[in-house]
Amino acid sequence: MPPTERKEWSRRDQLLNKADALALEADLLAYNSKYEEALKKYDEALSIYPSNPDLWAFKAITLQGGLKRDEEALKCWERAKKLDKVVADAFTDKPLEDKPLTEADLAGMADDSCREKIKKLMLKNRK
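The structure assignment produced for this chain is given below.
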């Protein structure tokens, strides 16, 4: 295709891009402790892409960590686990390690993105 031609995006691609943009907005809002606003953005993204386990997981993290709404968070975790085996394997019904994160754990994550931090925490809890 010559560089002057522009390929039209399919409706599906447009919707997935919109869902990604909403998820990014939600991540930024949650990072800035604007949890209620973040939830609205996650819900908008989920209305477009309800089979995305990452959206369900990040909504759960926002509900649980930011708003202490554990029952709602648990429902989101369950949905994420049904959609993605990796999430299901990382989060089991057994309690997480009793020992809190150490300064070394936190220092090792200082420059990581939010998603990378969560991956590391998930892997730490699998041991």
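Interim note for the steering committee: Residues 11-84 form a domain with the Serine Threonine Protein Phosphatase 5, Tetratricopeptide repeat fold (CATH 1.25.40.10). The two ends are 50 Å apart (CA to CA).
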